Amino acid sequence: MISTQFLVTALVVVLAPGTGVLYTLAIGLGRGRRAAAWAALGCTLGILPHLAAAILGLAALLHTSALAFTMLKWAGVAYLLYLASQALRSGGALALEEDRTAEEGWRTARRGTLINVLNPKLSIFFLALLPPFLSGDPATATAEMIGLGAVFMALTFAVFLLYGAFAALARDRLLASRRAMTWLNRTFAAAFAALAGRLALERA
After folding, report:
1. In angstroms, rounded to a whole number, what is the distance separating the alpha carbons of residues 42 and 50?
2. Does the record's keyword annotation contain Transmembrane (predicted)?
3. CB-side neighbour CA atoms (13 Å) of 131
4. pLDDT digit string, tens, across residues 151-195
């Protein structure tokens, strides 16, 4: 059974601003509600590999393997710096163009997925978050972790949709001022670069 304590803890974690939230906000402001929904979906799907790693015990291996952690970490750093550069380009990944086709939407979702997949701390996070809320019965531990993970993902998707919708509401006013959008893109670029720097300093 999903406890209220878990729901509150998961909601607080999901609401906390992070790379996925920043990406969803950037897409919502630049491309509108539909594109933000794709971004939210991608960020949510990016949780799956880390959840699986936690369930299978691979997160513990990642935590103890400096090489594996470092390789995944630097891949994440490189991708965040790529997004920072794209925010500064008029035709980049964060360009102010709506996703008109499903293919464009999936491209937006894939970028969101990569953001979370390339964050090695997520696997370790799940390894620390889920066990305290298990019943303690080894026979049901895997099923319980899957259930808790599914609830966490559902909360992530719902909250990110709200973030994206909020950003989309502000979009029309901001688009009226190209100067405002230029500075907003620079702000997102700086934020992605700062997150890359923070990830670079992380240790297993």
Report:
1. 14
2. yes
3. 12
4. 999 999 999 999 999 888 887 666 656 666 677 777 778 877 887
Examine residue 6 and state whether it is found in any structural domain, yes or no.
Answer: no
**Alpha-carbon dihedral angle through residues 5, 8, 10, 12, given to the nearest 10 degrees:** -140
| Chain segment 41-96, per-residue pLDDT in tens | 999 999 999 888 888 877 666 666 777 777 777 887 887 788 788 777 755 555 55
Strands in 58-175 per DSSP E: none
Higher-confidence residue of 171 and 118: namely 118
Scan for tokens 């035709």, then name that residue: 91
Burial class, 127, CB count within 10 angstroms (exposed 0-12 / middle 13-18 / buried 19+): buried
Is residue 105 included in any domain, yes or no?
Answer: yes
Question: For 132, which DSSP code?
Answer: G
Q: Which domain holds residue 139?
A: 18-200
Amino acid in position 156: T
